[in-house]
Amino acid sequence: MGAFYETIPENIYAWILQQKMLWVATAPLSKSGHINVSPKGGEYFGLIDNKTFWYMDLSGSGCETISHLRENGRITVMFQAFEGSPRIVRLWGKGRILERESPAFNDFIENNSVEIIPATRSIIIVDVHQTLNQVFEKRKEKFDAGKEDESMDHYWAYKSQWSIDGLPGMQRGLDASAKYGVEPLVKMTGPYAPAAPFGPKSFKLGHYLNYQIAKAKTTQVPLLDVLILLFVALIAGFAIATYAPDLMQTCRANIARLLKV
């Protein structure tokens, strides 16, 4: 299961700090721009409080993260368990760059007792506005035991029909939601939660309408049906273009005779 929070829950502090590797993802605003994912880790990251994460940016062959943060500030940090129970933690937030030797950089490393190395390029501060803590469970055993609501269709209807930003997702999830009446998981909390109809309060009517819109957008018409439709339209157009003038003259003549009578 997964749970969303507006802060970093204290009960996962220790788990985060025990990790040896993490990933950061950023992207430019341009539609043609490239999304960047970078591995980080070692001892070069930490938590300041329940809304602030930091990591040390080391010199590398590129500077995509810094460039993206300078433009728009958006950043996602992800941790993944390599030992113990399966778990993924994501932090969404706005990133700030403290470049080496700047007053803000010097104050930070002094106040937080951070040891830098020759390759240290900057400190990235992430002001977190949303956290997702995901732990995974076995559903097959429950479904095999007779719990129909533990089926994958129910799971997809609950988790996979809408994105965190309210975009339509898996078509089978949308279909299963309409079939079984499964309310979608409200992803994100607080001001970042998607607006209605993605929440439980407006699920019934609003969700159904959006389901129909999403289905219409994603439904694929078989190619053979399209070709048949085009062929029929072509024949109809040819017939109209060929016989319409004669039909119009015949109609006019008949109307004229009726008027004379």
TrEMBL record:
The chain crosses the membrane at residues 223-244. Residues 9-109 form the Pyridoxamine 5'-phosphate oxidase N-terminal domain. SUPFAM superfamilies: FMN-binding split barrel. Keywords: Membrane, Transmembrane, Transmembrane helix. The keyword Transmembrane helix applies. Pfam families: PNPOx_N. This is Pyridoxamine 5'-phosphate oxidase N-terminal domain-containing protein. It comes from Cercospora berteroae.
